[in-house]
Design brief:
seven-stranded mixed beta sheet, 26% strand, alpha/beta, 258 residues, 28% helix
């Protein structure tokens, strides 16, 4: 069994738990750790987990809303950490006391009942990676923080049974926002974040009969609205807007089984 629970998504902090079970064995991965230690512990507790129940941490890139308390959490509970070499360099080469593993594009990572396949994405970070996760039977794609869906990205997510997909902003709301012009260009650029229409286009490319659910993630609190993200994805996938899950900034999602 493979399942996901998002603990928070957006500029206020990102963290997602992936759990795979094989018999009595459970493997739990925390993707990103962009929260303070206290808030992370509270949200893990709401999910029925303790920090020491985590088997590994995967950091997608070095931005503050994704790295958060990762080093402190790893060192306190002796949790192995994966990230790209570029991410580690961009963070200033922090010392993980032997817990650090370097992840590479398309190099599988075997982690208990989970197999992870990292892949590079176009984003304004040093060496960002996103993930395809599998328990051997089901496949889950986790994709946030990218400016456009390259051919490489599309290829890595084909055939996934579930997706957590960035739907960051509505271009009209972004244009009308109080963001300074340089930030508007950054968010809406090819190495920024996916607009709703771009997310819908990607979802349509990944649509297949075995796709069970999609979570819209990393929504901008200022430049998007859940109903806009839902509407675009629902149209692309041929479903109702209420069938699309949304990862809330603080509440995240409930457990979703793939």
């Amino acid at each position: 069994m493979l399942r996901l629970r998002n603990l928070g998504s957006g500029s206020s902090g990102n963290a997602t738990v992936i759990e795979a079970r094989c018999g009595t064995q459970a493997t739990r991965l925390l993707i990103d750790c962009g929260l303070g230690m206290r808030h992370l512990a509270q949200r893990l507790d709401a999910a029925g987990l303790a920090p020491e129940a985590l088997d590994a941490i995967f950091i997608t890139h070095e931005h503050a809303d994704h790295i958060g308390c990762a080093q402190a959490l790893a060192l306190r509970h002796r949790i192995p950490v994966w990230m790209s070499h570029g991410t580690h360099v961009a963070l200033g080469l922090p010392d993980f006391d032997g817990l650090l593993h370097i992840a590479h594009d398309l190099q599988p990572i075997a982690l208990g009942a989970l197999e992870l396949r990292p892949f590079t994405v176009p984003h304004d970070a040093r060496e960002p990676l996103q993930l395809r996760c599998s328990d051997g039977a089901s496949h889950l794609g986790v994709l946030t923080d990218l400016g456009h869906a390259s051919n490489h990205v599309v290829a890595q997510l084909q055939g996934c049974h579930a997706l957590m997909l960035e739907s960051n902003h509505d271009p009209d709301l972004l244009a009308q926002s109080r963001y300074p012009e340089f930030l508007k260009r950054r968010v809406g650029g090819r190495y920024g974040h996916l607009a709703n229409a771009a997310a819908a286009d990607l979802a349509q490319q990944l649509r297949h009969p075995g796709l069970r659910w999609v979570v819209a993630a990393h929504l901008s609190e200022r430049n998007n609205r859940p109903e806009l993200a839902r509407a675009g994805l629902a149209t692309a996938l041929g479903c109702e807007p209420q069938d699309i899950h949304v990862a809330a900034p603080v509440a995240g999602t409930d457990w979703l089984e793939v």
